[in-house]
Amino acid sequence: MTLPSSPRKKFHFNFKLPGRAVRLVALLLLLGLSGYIYYLDVTIREAFEGRKFALPARVYGRALEVYPGLKLTREQFVEEFKSIGYHENPQPDEAATYKNTLNGIEFTTRDFVFGDGPQPLQHLRIEFADGKVSLLQVRGSKDVDLPLLRMEPPLIGGIYPGHNEDRELVRLSQVPKPLIDALIATEDRKFYSHWGIDPRGIARALYKTVTGQRIEGGSTLTQQLVKNFFLTSERTLSRKANEVLMALLLEMHYSKDEILETYLNEIFLGQDASRAIHGFGLASYFYFDRPLDRLEPQEIATLIGMVKGPTVYDPRKHPELALKRRDVVLQEMVSQNVITQAQFVAARQKPLGVVQRAPAGTSPYPAFLQFVHRQLERDYREEDLRSEGLRIFTTLDPFVQHQAEEALKSRLSAIEKARKFAANTLEGAVVVSSTQTGEIQAMVGGRDARYAGYNRALDTQRSIGSLVKPIVYLTALEDPQLYTLITPLDDNPLMWRQPGTTDWKPQNYDNQFHGQVQLRTALAHSYNVATARLGIELGVEHILDKLPLYGIERRPPPFASSLLGAFGLSPVEVAQLYQTFADGGFRTPLRAIRAIVTADGKLLQRYPLNVEPVAPPAPVYLLTAALQGVVREGTAQSMTNWLPVEMNVAGKTGTTDDLRDSWFAGYTGDRVAVVWVGRDDNKPSGLTGASGAMTVWGEMMKNIQHEPLEPAMPEDIEMVNVDPVSGLRYDERCKAGVLLPFIKGSAPAETSPCGASSADGQANDSAGAKAEAKPDAKPGGKQDSGKRNWFQRLFN
Amino acid sequence: MSGNRAVIALLDRAQADNESGQREAAGASLERALRIEPRNPWLWLELAQVRLAQGQYAQAITLARKSNSFAGRQHRVQAENWQVIGQARVAQGDSAGAGQAFKLSAELAQQAKAKGYHDSGFNFQ
């Protein structure tokens, strides 16, 4: 196949014809330019569409549920008001206002959209008596009792887009007209008539560039918006040219109102630590703690003045400059008839009126927020979290959180002072959760709770020491044929050889050996040797295999020393472990999020309560009784300095080698809490679990209302009166002895005559415990033989 | 079910949602109620019934067991819990286990009847 030769020739460039070459070059240039313009067009449209909706996720704490009978004081309720931004007002009929009355408070709530739908504004009255809510009513022509009120939840933080930009989205219709007029008067008077650029401004900018002066000014609002999309300090001619082209393109695609609305939400208006303040909606809260539509003329002028230079005219950092600039804007406003002469005169006389402390934008609870963020990252793309305006309802209880923060801070300072440690050498972490629902109510990642850095509650893995012991004892108690609370354990010297590790000779904290001790006593006093021997008998692997059941995914080394906690866990992992003990053997994964709602109020996802049975209830019941013994008569006895004995707290101290880590994990009827105290450099802190972490725990919990710990008794448990020393059964009517729970069929069958050991004053429980601590000191002949019989029975 | 009117209000709402097929919303209201009375066996039973209706059989059984752990001597709520367990086992294909659960449920219901007013179901916390 041959091609005709003549057409081919046409494709030869003929440079002898200059006209053609010029035309071709022009064509190529035009093609290149249109390609470039197309590229700019795509870029600017993407930026516009993308930024238009880039809204940070808002994170809320728990919503306070108020009802008659709730334990709540007026002071606590007013604290709640403050955390959700209510203002005192003699006429409390506007949303988010309140007024103190003789017996209580009159107030008005806001409209609020919860995960389960909207809740309208309500005019209410609450009264208090004896530390409780005594009355809750809807105010009206006729007052009506209200059984339950859900308050709006406090905003506790945000997850910000890209470069930590925060904004409070406003619709154009929500923006007060004076603000728009003032903006146009000051920044771009021809906004509604130009095509995106101001030729005179550009000419001026060009002239200045050519004459070697700074490139500045001449920017329309549209150009400023473009500039904001690609914030950079670079001032070059090509950048300016791009800006002009993009401004023209924007005007081709979008209406003036769309551009203005985006501008109002996009413009950079200040910096709050790592958070960038974007848009007038957020700036209004950031500088004046009020929504945009409640700003006064001089406040509007202050914000408009900042457009020219948000850093230079920052009213907090440079009040004089900001004030001067504000007055210039006010002058423009009056000359363009945005405000009247009278308004102008009045406004000029007012101070800047900026609230001194910006409302917390970056969260006041960084440790908790980090936990929330990590849970979210499992289910959501990071970009969606940062841009879709999701509303995230969490479990944080600001009151409990406050107690946790204060207790940690004050106790660590007090300990350092009392022991003459260098200041700020101790660190700590706290986790508090609800027993039955697994909701995290408080999380503190260090003694400076506001510091958004290293989160010790989540990210520090420290040896847990004796906190692991309950797993060993629970494993034993799951076999009631062999183990009960009074089964004697051997606390004589032990040497353990295991391939792969050096010979192991565990010691007790007091460097003594205690002979035969009852199981509950060995746990109460945290005897290492008895526990190690018990664990080895039960099987190290067998015990460690149970950890995943309790939600601990980390696998400790398969050595016997792991039975004494020679492996690291984070405080939140320990909280998960103790949650199962506290909840009768049901494991509920710890949760920080309840629900996620989209920006327009649709429920996106709920994180429902999930419960799994992982340990039979009866042995867990026995374990809790033993852990109550730890507090009543064991290593945590000094808890009585903080909490009354009737609270029946169950808990365990943890102390590691050379006093590096001080732990306390414990529970009341409705809360599980874990405290770790130690040093970041892992040097000895000089503290035991009881002298460090437990004091933080007590200090924190004493200020929180608790249910006493009264676990539901499983059907296969019976209470039996036993002689605490011999472990023999007493007659039920016998007043001596101690009432202990047993799994049915496991209580000692052999009875002892009433008063056999009460004769020497060893009848009550705590005295009994002391006797057991030194078992060699008191064994009367009769008891001894009884004990041996009972022994034989158990081990035959 | 409860002596607390706030809890009753939430229970009413949950039951209305459950009847209209809004299981998630019903669950959410019950969780709110449980935050107020975490040891009320009737609330755990209601949640178990919602999960059963949602086809979450293992969760329904666990929640019914949890309800039983708080039930003490309240035979009526225990009887209801064993009903839930029985139905969940049927759905799981465990007919023998279901039979046992239904038998237990019937016995407990009998005992509840015999006790009459003693077991009115009220649980004051």
Q: How would you describe what is shown here?
A:
The complex is a heterodimer of chains A (796) and B (125). With 796 residues, chain A is an alpha+beta fold. Chain A folds into five domains: 63-152, Penicillin-binding protein 1b fold; 165-349, Penicillin binding protein transpeptidase fold; 364-378 and 389-460 and 569-613 and 639-711, Beta-lactamase (3-Layer(aba) Sandwich), CATH 3.40.710; 465-566, Beta-lactamase, CATH 3.40.710.10; 717-795, no CATH class. In chain A, the strands form eleven sheets. In chain A, strands 3-4-5-8-9-10 form a six-stranded mixed sheet, with helices on one face. A five-stranded mixed sheet of chain A has the order 12-1-16-26-27. Chain A starts with a helix and ends with a helix. Chain B is mostly helical and 125 residues long. Chain B has a single domain (5-118), classed as Serine Threonine Protein Phosphatase 5, Tetratricopeptide repeat (Alpha Horseshoe), CATH 1.25.40. Chain B is 75% helix and 0% strand. The longest helix of chain B has 21 residues, at 95-115. The termini of chain B are close together.
